[in-house]
């Protein structure tokens, strides 16, 4: 009876070692698969980030080009535009001066009337 239980326990021990080996192998395979999945996700994330940065850079480049085109066009027609602005500025200043002169005259006439009333 004793021998029989010893044999069973020895068999269990041996079987346990084999089972432990199998578990470790399985664990190793599972870890390997997890690592592969993580690596793949990381690569996908990196490519997405690269694409988004490329898009951002492209957008910046296009914006820069647009502004350069505009400034170039401004420079080209700048002389004509400047002439027009000066003419407009001259007209506006002339009108402002006329308005000031008119107000000043009105103010003077009011003061004259007030001084006449006082006398």
Which terms summarize this structure?
119 residues; mainly alpha; 2 domains; 0% strand; rod-shaped
Name the quaternary structure.
single chain
Determine the structural class based on helices, strands and strand pairing.
mainly alpha
Number of helices: 2
What are the segments in which pLDDT stays under 50 over at least 5 consecutive residues?
A: none
Number of domains: 2
> What order do the helices and strands follow?
HH
Number of strands: 0
For the termini, the CA-CA separation is 148 Å
Q: Strand count, sense and closure of the main sheet?
A: none
Shape category: rod-shaped
**What's the pLDDT, averaged over the residues?**
83
The proportion of residues in beta strands is under 5%
Quick recap:
With 119 residues, this protein is mainly α. The chain folds into two domains: 76 residues; 41 residues.
């Amino acid at each position: 009876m004793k021998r029989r239980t010893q044999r069973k326990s020895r068999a269990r021990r041996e079987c346990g070692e084999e089972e432990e080996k199998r578990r470790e192998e399985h664990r190793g395979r599972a870890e390997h698969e997890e690592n592969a999945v993580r690596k793949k996700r990381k690569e996908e994330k990196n490519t997405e980030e690269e694409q988004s940065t490329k898009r951002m850079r492209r957008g910046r480049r296009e914006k820069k080009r647009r502004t350069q085109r505009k400034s170039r066009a401004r420079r080209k027609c700048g002389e004509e535009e400047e002439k027009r602005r000066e003419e407009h500025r001259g007209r506006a200043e002339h009108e402002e001066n006329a308005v000031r002169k008119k107000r000043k005259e009105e103010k003077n006439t009011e003061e004259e009337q007030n001084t006449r009333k006082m006398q």
